[in-house]
Specification:
Layout (H helix, E strand, L loop, with lengths): L2 H11 L3 H4 L11 E7 L4 H14 L5 E7 L8 H7 L5 E4 L8 H18 L3 E5 L1 H12 L7 E5 L12 H18 L2 E4 L2 H7 L5 E3 L22 E5 L8 H10 L4 E5 L13 E3 L6 H8 L4 E4 L8 H8 L4 E4 L4 H4 L6 E4 L2 H11 L2 H18 L2 H13 L1
Parallel strand pairs: 1-2, 1-4, 2-3, 4-5, 5-6, 6-7, 8-9, 8-11, 9-10, 11-12, 12-13
Length: 387
Amino acid sequence: MALDDRLIEFMMLSCHPSKALKHPKLLLMSTLKIVHVVEALGGGVYTYFKNLTQVLCEAPDLEVTVIYSGNRDEINNDQVVADFHPKTRLICISMHREIRFKEDFKAFKALKTTLKQIEPDVLHLHSSKAGILGRFAYLFSPRLKAKLFYTPHGFSFLRKDISSLKRHLFFSIEFLSQKLTGGTLIACGDTELRYAKKIGPALLVRNGIQQLGLTNFEKQHRPQIKCIGTLGRITYARNPAYFNQIALNYPELEFLWIGDGELRHQLTAPNITVTGWFNHYEQGLQKLEVLDLYLQTSLWEGLPIALLEASAREIPIVATNIIGNKDIVADGKTGFLFDAEHEFDQILQKSKNQSTRIALGNAAKKRTAILFNSAVNFQKLIRLYQA
């Protein structure tokens, strides 16, 4: 059977790991078996994995498996297969973001069984839910000798939509899980690294985007600001109510939300257009190019990929002064950070100058190419895996 035929057969069986793993000939033997586990395969994390597989699967002697959940609305299994590197092994295991003890136990058992079958050399867990389930599967698999890594992509104890008691509980769970299983935390941003060090041994591997095709990109800056927008899921974390309020304050401007989500009903301003989801991620990125300013109203973040995509396209960023945003935006140099609505108005007045926007956009593109190049940053992960 040819290589491509084996990969196609594996993809067909990928959502049934118990069946796929009974076919050892489908698994391509290589020097280092790497397994990534993620529940939250949507938004920026999706782009992260898309870029990650493009880098890892091109490296020699690496065998890459991604175990993910297809339960989120924006997940399209066919699109995952199309977007990820064709050498990526994809396995679907049902996981849920919120605590559901019965479902969580099923996910734990499925994960434990799958890891036992694969016997990875490296196990890398992503985001809070997969981090907990994966650690328990690792803990109760004494024969598993894999190196353990965990990337939070935004710690759950930094969420603003839960009580302080719950935040304290989530921190305790992260802390105790780390003590029980060990391993290394891989922070995706500089500020996340500082929090990660409070929990255990931590290193920094910044999120990144593909720079290919963007090197010669030149933004056509309009003389006046006409359209302000954002890219991503419409969730509490992205604070759509605040985005809506800003749009109401400036009825003469167009506002664009590229994406969709459960809080779409909060975007009621008549000058806001919501695009909905696209069949291909690139379609959403093309919409970015019509923006004169990129507005990020988030309450909390890990290291938002959408800001990197906008920066690489020379779009000045205006973002709330929070973790993640402030790791990307050099305030006053590549964009602006703000804490209150009156500050946004001051920033808008500064940004009306076309030459200012051009200078900010050029600086943003250069900073992104240096600090947030996925082809460079993910090579650091490979070195960690191989060490």
